[in-house]
Amino acid sequence: MVALEADVESAVAAPAARRRRVGPLFIAAIAWIALIASAAIFAGVLPLPSPTEIDMLGKRAPPSAEHWLGNDALGRDVLSRLIFGARFSLTVGLLAPVIGIVVGGFLGMMAGYFRGRLETFIVGGMDVLLAFPPLVLALAVTAYLGQSLANLTFVLGVLGIPAFTRVARAVTLSLSEREFVTAARALGATHSRILLRELLPNVMLPLLAFFLLGVAVTIVVEGALSFLGLGVPPPAPSWGSMIGEGRESLDLAPQLAFLPAGFMFATVLAFNIVGDTLRALTDPRAGKL
Amino acid sequence: MSEPLLSIEGVSVDLPTPRGPLRAVDKVDLALAPGRTLGVVGESGCGKTMLSRAILQLLPKRAKLGGRILFQGQDMASLSAEALRRLRGPELAVVFQDPMTSLNPVLTIGTQIVETLQAHLGMDTSAAAKRGAELLAAVGIPAPEQRLRQYPHQLSGGMRQRVAIAIALSCEPKLLIADEPTTALDVTIQAQILDLLAREQKRRHMAMILITHDLGVVAGRTDEVAVMYAGRIVERAPTAELFARMRMPYTQALLAALPRLDSPPHTALPAIGGRPPDPTRPLPGCSFAPRCRYAESDCRDVKPALADPDKAGAFYACWHPLP
């Protein structure tokens, strides 16, 4: 009897303490993101050659002790350009979805919770935004406002809003029908309390999973824009513009295009893996079914 | 009889449907004194839940409410959204049918109780946490401090319903509406939850409306019983009198449809034949007439009113009451 009680006691104290396993893939993904992010953050203090210094004698030089990954077509250090390029790609990749998740999440929850005319208006606005060709919008903004990190982030962020709005609205719609929202209302909760405390924590999980997907997509789109020459103005490096420049010497030095492409691939994959695993780990509803 | 806490006068609820308005609740009159309990019984779809939602003013947006609902003398329909919000919680509270969905899955039990206490009673976090643990202990949850840190999915259905009751009781409401509180639970847990509700109701001297489809549930636990059928109250009497002498054939059929412990094995349950009438096409006569075995031709022509011809405090709506 005593033993039984002790068991119940510990079971009550820590029933959910069972360890959830994370695979080596997740650890590798985290390690890669941490490596790229810290390299990008500390790029200025690392003992790297300048990413923009041209050495016409060392064009397409193979890897050496001085230049670990060799030089590009203009004799600039490839490793240094990759790391400084990560700065740009990660900044855009992380900041643009933040605009999306904040604005889109807010609009989506409003539309899903209050319904009515507000919903018609928001959904209609998102349809208009979705119908707008993204490359044309990016072209128009960079042509009129100029090519800069802030403008690029802004364009990519705005383009991401409809997707976040749709996710947030769909989740809010289905949650608003659930009894706990009625129960909260029956206990005299205000609209803002229901939205912030009852709905937001539930909407946040799918939105965060979608956010990491958004980071991955944005990095790719930023690469495409830079490849087209709409990204960061040269000579500053970005992965997309490096692939674009490397394209010209694919036959002589294929690594100039494939190295930044490989970095982008690994980073995007890592964000997707982390997004999926975190969603599975943090979802308290997983145990319910 | 003291001043009623809640009085419902001629309340109707109409829901718009593609096939025309659906009358979910049809001119219901009820009164409930402070500290008393009322059982509302009827089969699925007879308007019990809509009636409770009407009292709470939580009807679907497109529903139309007729009649008056007076709570402590105030007309609920005329209250502002803010006044209504203040009323819910400290005055009026509700326990829903399914504890699986009435608790927020991503917040801990503690957060849900503490925030309710803070919102209504303005308690600080540590006082609210202490009070939360007391509440959980009061509804019979062992190790309440640990439970506060857990999520709803870590609790069993009975435990969750206890938590839902604790949250509903947290602000000491004057009226608790329990909308089929045991329907989603195991039979062995049902009695525990009902006893808990009855105990807390007596201890706090709060009025309670117990909504159920099970006459057995209201039998020992309510002061008065109202039987609903097709949106109307068809019989209303003090509980003891109702069970001693049922006048309306529907009530009797409901009771007969309950399985009995003392009946021999393999006895067929006398289910009520047919289905409730289509609520979008009201019948001219008694709504139960098509299924009633005592029905005669006059039943189908004119609707009987809820009346108390014997002046015995037992109301019923039937042309041919049972003796």
What descriptors fit this protein?
heterodimer, A: about 290 residues, mainly alpha, MetI-like fold, 10 helices, about 70% helix, disordered N terminus, B: about 325 residues, alpha/beta, Rossmann fold, 2 domains, seven-stranded mixed sheet, four-stranded antiparallel sheet, 11 helices
List the topology elements.
The complex is a heterodimer of chains A (289) and B (323).
Chain A: H1 2-13, H2 24-41, H3 78-114, H4 116-131, H5 134-145, H6 149-176, H7 179-186, H8 191-227, H9 239-247, H10 255-282
Helix pairs in contact in A: 2-3, 2-10, 3-4, 3-6, 3-8, 4-6, 5-6, 6-8, 7-8, 8-9, 8-10, 9-10
Chain B: E1 6-15, E2 22-32, E3 37-41, H1 48-56, E4 64-71, E5 74-75, H2 81-87, E6 92-95, H3 109-121, H4 125-138, H5 144-148, H6 157-169, E7 175-179, H7 187-204, E8 207-212, H8 215-219, E9 224-229, E10 232-238, H9 239-244, H10 249-256, H11 297-301, E11 315-316
Parallel strand pairs in B: 3-8, 3-9, 6-7, 7-8
Antiparallel strand pairs in B: 1-2, 1-4, 4-5, 9-10, 10-11
Counting DSSP E segments of at least 2 residues, the number of strands of chain B comes to 11
Q: What is the spatial order of strands in the main beta sheet of chain B?
A: 6-7-8-3-9-10-11
Strand elements of chain A, count:
0
- Sketch the topology of chain B as an H/E string, one letter per element: EEEHEEHEHHHHEHEHEEHHHE
The proportion of strand residues of chain B reads 15-25%
Unreliable parts of chain B = none
Anisotropy-based shape of chain B: globular
CATH class of chain A: Mainly Alpha
Classified by CATH, the class of the largest domain in chain B is Alpha Beta
Please summarize the sheet with the most strands of chain B: 7 strands, mixed
**Radius of gyration of chain A, CA atoms, in whole angstroms:** 24 Å
Strand content of chain A: under 5%
CATH topology of chain A: MetI-like fold
| Alpha carbon gap, first and last residue of chain A | 32 Å
CATH architecture of chain A: Orthogonal Bundle
